[in-house]
Amino acid sequence: MKNSLRLTALAACAALTLGACSAAPEKAGPATAEPTKETGTMAKDFKACMVSDEGGFDDKSFNQSGHEGLERAGKELGIEVKATESKNDADFAPNLDRLVAEKCNIIFGVGFKLADATYAAAQAHPDVHFALIDSTEPPKKEKLPNFRPLVFNTAEAGFLAGYVAAGMTQTGKVGTYLGMKLPTTAIFADGFSDGIMRYNEDNGTSVELLGWDKKAQDGQATGDFSDQNKGKATTTNLINQGADIIMPVAGPVGAGTLAAAKEANAAGKNVSVVWVDADGVETTPDAKDVILTSVMKQIGEAVFDTTKDLVDGKPFTSEPYIGTIANKGVALAPFHGFDAKVSADLKAKLEALSADIASGKLKIESPNSPK
What we know:
Strand order of the largest sheet: 2-1-3-4-5-13
Keywords: Cell membrane, Lipoprotein, Membrane, Signal
Number of strands: 14
Largest sheet: 6 strands, parallel
GO cellular component, one term: plasma membrane
Membrane topology: Lipid-anchor
Helix content: 25-40%
Mean pLDDT: 88
Low-confidence stretches: 1-41
Protein name: BMP family ABC transporter substrate-binding protein
Family: Belongs to the BMP lipoprotein family.
CATH architecture of the largest domain: 3-Layer(aba) Sandwich
């Protein structure tokens, strides 16, 4: 097995700075043409754009991952790209309208909080393509031919993270918490919980999960995705209860968890973190000494592939893209500096479980899984 373990299924498995409302575009060509639903547009006439939520494009999480996919599209496809940051919810609609006025062919909204604004923009501008990352269209709304959700079944990769956390804990307790109690955050904790339960069943252990009750669909949450002090306090509380591996599902709030883990280790404890959305070692290299692994949404790949299909002239579809282990849309990140600490037996078991998930032999079920 390679030193940097990237769990695969069957034959394969994969892989935001608060600032001004409008970030400087990276240009790779002019934007002069409107999209057509049947044939797309030539690369030299194509412009792909993106609006962040309040986390910004250096959030070390899903906004950053989406932005990286957009930048990749600009470089590899030779198209013009533009990214616009939002400081708060009130910026969403104006930012989307601004990009429509700039004749973007496709506009990505990053995060569930942009759902209403992105759907409304798609309704108002049927000749522009829209893609909403991490959320489906708002409930009880009809599908729009120019609106596509890009969502991720992170319960699958979360299951693998829970399994390895249960196999690595020294205290017999691991913890998790959410930024806000939402389907897109709870799904991580659901998978994490199931992975711990499976490890206990396989090994006759009784590892305990603090911070989330899957059956009750309730647990700890900081109430936002921005207050890192709340993340630090919540993590410290979990550590004081005995948890030595913590998974924050809270975007930038998770930086507080990294800080708490470092402080605990400086005081003689042995605490590590499971990051989410992106590979935390790559996005936050100064925390590599505490990040065991990450539950990754391959948001950048979804953004790139959606853009490339349009540039190549493929018809736009409103059917949701659902990232899974099988299609490489979600994955467990490499163990990086922790690789030598993870036993060969545990790695082999993770590989086997990943293959079973991809084949459908093992189904990871969550009430929050995208449909």
